[in-house]
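Let's inspect one such protein example.
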Amino acid sequence: MEESCNQCGKCCLHMRRYMIIERNISDSQYFCHFTLTKERFFARLGGDDLARFRDRNSMSGYPDSCPFLRQLEDKSFHCTIYSSRPEHCRKFFCA
């Protein structure tokens, strides 16, 4: 049974060294490498997620976080590539 995300950010706050953006394909698409599993994937951003991704200020207090994670005004966290996240992230279970 898949659990829904509660937007706590715990799964992503220490992932910067594992989630590598290898190159920009366009303003809204990136070729990435998730080094824990050696998975390579395309990260796609659109709409509000693209605007959030461009705003890097929300994560200034979390330098080790995944480059695609953003903090919202209500202090919850949001994955800007949720629909195109790597398999490891899809299978993560927050206990």
Remarks:
- The longest strand covers residues 19-26.
